[in-house]
């Protein structure tokens, strides 16, 4: 009988990635609805020390695998270890981050285990009647949301984009079980050679980590339109992000893009400046705590999700706003 909600936890250089902690928050909710447990799967070299953190963030049990072969993510050894854990434990649900690692790993496991996989989910819920997992994701270019079921196979598997689910706060009173799983790796499991690891150093903060985002769209008029936004962001201690239209026009790089094919963000404040509010953009920012929109078109869809909307010219309003905030700070 399948049971429990399993989460694949990502680590890089033995640092737990935020997405895994977010997924534990969602897994906790799903497991409570099912009356089952949350199990975190943690792989790496000398990784056991991180297991406690996962319990404090919602896991009832951590299954960890330590081996030098798992130091860096490589498909085959990771797929072998997770495959063995799943086959031994028969989970009801397994969730992964829709990151480059999760997107590589999850489909391989789906094929090995002979089950389905719903990629890039934005919502996961338990059907109160059937107790099946309802996996919702954008479909047809984001024009509709599709809810997908995996009724006949177990585990039910999904990948979820970073920033979509909410982590639960650290609870130091939580306790749980930490179990080591031994995997017999053989040299052939390492079917690639890592010659060098080149890291791209970014001076900018990842937009998914920002507390305040000032986002520019086509309405800012051109690449020079980002300068007033930068000035405003500086006063606010914010980061700059954008719509896809601004990226496609070559005004800003893709790592700033918010939305269905960009990043999902959940800042405390999101400024949408000259952004119409297309459904694909909203998919990446509508969970922000406070949305402030400036748009010259009164019925722009962005105003439907905005907590505060200003109808007006962004080029006139942004410098004035930056100036006023600067004065208020002095
Ligand atoms: P526009 O839609 O052109 O809107 C510009 C807005 O600025 C208008 O509302 C206008 O009234 C306002 N404006 C103009 N001048 C001023 C001014 N001077 N002052 C104030 N307001 C002004 N989009 C994303 O953003 N992210 C995605 O990840 C994404 N993924 C997509 C995936 C698919 C499969 C598809 C089909 C589309 C995707 N899109 C995405 C594109 C999306 O559909 C929109 O085309 C895009 O979001 C529009 O960007 P925008 O709001 O900046 O531009």
Automatic annotation (TrEMBL):
Positions that bind FAD: 218, 243-244, 257-261, 274-281, 295
CDD domains (alphabetical): ETF_alpha
Annotated cofactor note: Binds 1 FAD per dimer.
Keyword line: FAD, Flavoprotein
InterPro entries according to UniProt: DHS-like_NAD/FAD-binding_dom (IPR029035), ETF_a/b_N (IPR014730), ETF_a/FixB (IPR001308), ETF_alpha_N (IPR033947), ETF_asu_C (IPR014731), Rossmann-like_a/b/a_fold (IPR014729)
Gene Ontology biological process: fatty acid beta-oxidation using acyl-CoA dehydrogenase
All residue ranges annotated as the Electron transfer flavoprotein alpha/beta-subunit N-terminal domain in the record: 5-194
Family label: Belongs to the ETF alpha-subunit/FixB family.
Name of the protein this chain belongs to: Electron transfer flavoprotein subunit alpha/FixB family protein
Organism of this sequence: Anaerosphaera multitolerans
Higher taxonomy: Bacteria, Bacillati, Bacillota, Tissierellia, Tissierellales
């Amino acid at each position: 009988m399948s049971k429990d909600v399993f989460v694949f936890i990502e680590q890089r250089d033995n640092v737990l990635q935020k997405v895994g902690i977010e997924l534990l928050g969602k897994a906790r909710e799903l497991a409570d609805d099912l009356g089952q447990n949350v199990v975190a799967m943690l792989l790496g070299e000398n990784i056991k020390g991180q297991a406690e953190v996962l319990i404090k963030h919602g896991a009832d049990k951590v299954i960890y695998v330590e081996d030098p072969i798992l130091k860096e993510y490589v498909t085959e050894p990771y797929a072998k270890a997770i495959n063995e854990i799943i086959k031994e434990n028969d989970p009801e649900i397994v969730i992964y981050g829709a990151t480059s690692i999760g997107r590589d790993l999850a489909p391989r496991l789906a094929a090995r285990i002979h089950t389905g996989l719903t990629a890039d989910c934005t919502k996961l819920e338990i059907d109160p009647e059937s107790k099946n997992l309802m996996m919702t994701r954008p479909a047809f270019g984001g024009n509709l949301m599709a809810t997908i079921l995996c009724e006949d196979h177990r585990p039910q598997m999904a990948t979820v984009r970073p920033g979509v689910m909410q982590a639960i706060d650290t609870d130091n009173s939580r306790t749980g079980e930490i179990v080591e799983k031994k995997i017999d790796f053989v040299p052939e499991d390492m079917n690639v050679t890592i010659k060098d690891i080149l890291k791209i150093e970014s001076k900018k903060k990842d937009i998914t980590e920002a507390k305040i985002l000032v986002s520019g769209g086509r309405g800012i008029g051109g690449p020079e339109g980002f300068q007033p936004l930068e000035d405003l962001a500086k006063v606010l201690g914010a980061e700059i992000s954008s719509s896809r239209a601004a990226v496609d026009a070559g005004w800003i790089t893709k790592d700033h893009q918010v939305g269905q094919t960009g990043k999902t963000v959940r800042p405390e404040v999101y400024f949408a400046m000259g952004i119409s509010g297309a459904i694909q953009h909203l998919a990446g920012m509508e969970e922000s705590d406070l949305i402030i929109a400036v748009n010259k078109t009164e019925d722009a869809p962005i105003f439907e999700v905005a907590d505060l909307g200003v109808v007006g010219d962004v080029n006139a309003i942004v410098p004035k706003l930056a100036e006023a905030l600067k004065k208020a700070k002095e």
